[in-house]
Amino acid sequence: MNSSMIEKDIYLFAGCIGLVFANSVLFFAPHFLLIGLTALQGGMIINEFLGSKWKSLFNNLGLSNSDNKTPQLLRKEKNDLGEKYIFSIPQGLCLSDFEKVHEEIETALRKSLKLDLTNDFKVAMQIFDVEYKDVYKPNKEIYINE
Questions:
Q1: pLDDT band at 89 (very low <50, low <70, confident <90, very high)
Q2: What are 97-107's pLDDT values in tens digits?
Q3: Nearest-CA neighbor of 73 among 61, 57, 62?
């Protein structure tokens, strides 16, 4: 066997491997595309649900501008304290408008929260998800001298 035949065999083998790989990619690509589109669609549905929940709350509280635009949910972040929601502020509204309905939002969510303005002028709403422990009860009786 000379070296040119070995070279041809290597190229033939590499070509076969390439064809197998290309066919497998063509076979599985639609499946991966379908899985990716399903995940994207699921994320959009969840985001739409969360957005409509907030829009309904803001409409009920009168937190909208003269064009009836309400703050839009931009993102949700989980952290050690609970969840932080970032909202855009439509023209005509400001952080003080959120602070006016702070207690109403807490009542609607049944959780305490803190409002802040981000560096890029968005409203950050930190919702606290902290479980409080039972009140400490001492196991000894306390006597007060009269």
A1: very high
A2: 999 999 999 99
A3: 57
Number of structural domains found in the chain: 1
Give the strand order in the sheet containing 73-79. Answer: 73-79, 82-87, 123-128, 113-117
- The three-state DSSP-derived secondary structure of the chain is CCHHHHHHHHHHHHHHHHHHHHHHHHHHHHHHHHHHHHHHHHHHHHHHHHHHHHHHHHHHHCCCCCCCCCCCEEEEEEECCEEEEEECCCCCCCHHHHHHCHHHHHHHHCCCEEEEECCCCCEEEEEECCCCCCCCCCCCCCCCCC
Structure tokens at 76: 């949700």
Q: Is residue 124 situated within a structural domain? A: yes
Q: What is the CATH number of the domain that holds 31?
A: 3.30.980.40
Q: What pTM did the predictor assign?
A: 0.57
